[in-house]
């Protein structure tokens, strides 16, 4: 008998802002740790994280935003951007939220890993080492490939003109 493989799931929150002379911008984070050091292209992510089958995805998105950014998610209406299967096989669900926060105030959570590999030394690294507001075009270059669809979906929703309702906020 074979064990049933469980689909790994993550949920996240993509903050966005629009403003006079600025246009649409989204807040994304550069992934922390030694594997991402010195990389910019395809090394950024929506603040998100995995959750268990007994946790609501919206609650996980809220929890993960706070863990990765270091502050609670801002208040406001959440816009459902759906889910997307990543190249790794993980399914990611994302909501968008209009808010304007200062990336410099982030206090990212950390994770521990053995580094250098096979050294026996456990080191801590930030989950995300910096955050930035990016245009959709910048985000398309910086985000990991499987998450770019969420920026495209947000742009589509905004282009529809005001249909920014529904969500798990």
Description:
By secondary structure, this protein is an alpha+beta fold. The protein contains three helices and nine strands, in the order ββββαβββββαα. Strands 1, 2, 3, 4, 5, 6 and 9 form a seven-stranded mixed β-sheet that branches. A two-stranded antiparallel ribbon has the order 7-8. It is globular and about 55 Å long. The mean pLDDT is 92.
DSSP helical segment count: 3
Order of helices and strands: EEEEHEEEEEHH
Strand coverage percent: 25-35%
- Whole-Å distance between the termini? 41 Å
Rg result = 16 Å
Helix content: 10-25%
Shape: globular
Low-confidence stretches: none
Instruction: Report the major sheet.
Output: 7 strands, mixed
Q: Overall pLDDT, averaged?
A: 92
Oligomeric status: single chain
Overall SS class: alpha+beta
| Overall strand count | 9
Give structural attributes.
seven-stranded mixed beta sheet; globular; alpha+beta; single chain; 32% strand; 169 residues; two-stranded antiparallel sheet; 9 strands
């Amino acid at each position: 008998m074979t064990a049933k493989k469980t689909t790994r799931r993550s949920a996240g929150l993509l903050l966005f802002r629009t403003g006079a002379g600025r246009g649409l911008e989204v807040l994304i984070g550069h992934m922390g740790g030694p594997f991402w050091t010195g990389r910019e292209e395809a090394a950024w992510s929506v603040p998100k994280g995995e959750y268990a089958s007994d946790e609501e995805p919206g609650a996980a998105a809220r929890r993960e935003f706070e863990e990765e950014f270091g502050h609670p998610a801002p208040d406001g209406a959440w816009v459902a951007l759906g889910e997307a299967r990543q190249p790794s096989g993980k399914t990611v669900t994302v909501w968008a939220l209009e808010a304007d926060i200062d990336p410099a105030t982030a206090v990212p959570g950390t994770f521990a890993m053995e580094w250098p590999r096979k050294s026996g030394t456990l080191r801590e690294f930030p989950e995300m080492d910096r955050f930035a507001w990016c245009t959709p075009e910048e985000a398309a270059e910086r985000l990991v490939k499987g998450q770019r669809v969420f920026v495209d979906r947000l742009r589509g929703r905004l282009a529809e003109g005001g249909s920014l309702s529904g969500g798990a906020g």
